[in-house]
Specification:
DNA repair; alpha+beta; MutT-like; Nucleoside Triphosphate Pyrophosphohydrolase; about 160 residues; 3 helices; five-stranded mixed β-sheet; 8 strands; globular; 8-oxo-7,8-dihydrodeoxyguanosine triphosphate pyrophosphatase activity; metal-binding; binds 8-OXO-2'-deoxyguanosine-5'-triphosphate
Length: about 160
């Protein structure tokens, strides 16, 4: 079986309880993914807990300290399959010290409202994660939309 390397990343938000903005980061390297947008983070090193790795990555990549909130639990034993070589676990995070800067690996950061999320070119593996974040921002879940449409189409003269 192919074993995937664990990547830890953060949905950095303006407020953990009622988020309105998400921090998206544009990769500057490697060339295959340069220009694509992602969640700040990186591979966990041997001997680190995922949370320790995430604090280290946020410090190295963005120059910030952060408090971590809940994990956005994914469908693959709690993780998200993002590439054929990587699994990702993702936590909400709020900056407690510093102003995020694109120090390494990124050349631009943007604080995006949910209406702006589809306007950036996310890495392919991140797209389902971005959609799964919507309910936390008070947006309808993508799964709820077809159900809502179906309820509108239902013939009101039929018995319930
Ligand atoms: N950090 C991060 N990586 C992602 C995301 N989505 C996605 O497909 N990836 C991929 C890109 C990379 O191939 C891999 C993570 O590797 P990385 O280059 O960020 O790891 P790292 O910071 O530890 O870097 P390195 O020491 O291995 O150079 O996962 C994401 O949202 N965040």
């Amino acid at each position: 079986m192919l074993s995937r390397r664990l990547v830890v990343a953060a949905a950095v938000v303006d407020d953990l309880a009622s988020p309105t903005r998400l921090l998206a980061a544009r990769r500057s390297r490697p060339a295959e993914i340069a220009g694509r947008w992602e969640f700040p983070g990186g591979k966990a090193d041997e001997g680190e807990t995922p949370q320790q790795a995430l604090h280290r990555e946020l410090w190295e990549e963005l120059g910030v300290r952060a408090e971590l909130g809940d994990e956005l639990v994914g469908p693959d034993h709690g993780a998200w399959t993002i590439t054929d070589r990587h699994l990702m676990r993702l936590w909400f995070a709020r900056v407690t010290e510093g102003e995020p800067l694109p120090l390494v690996e990124h050349d631009e950061l943007r604080w995006l409202a949910p209406s702006e999320w589809s306007g950036v070119d996310w890495l392919d593996g991140d797209l389902p994660i971005v959609e799964a974040l919507r309910p936390r921002f008070g947006e309808p879940s993508p799964l709820a939309a077809p159900l809502f449409a179906a309820s509108l189409l239902r013939d009101p003269t039929l018995p319930n």
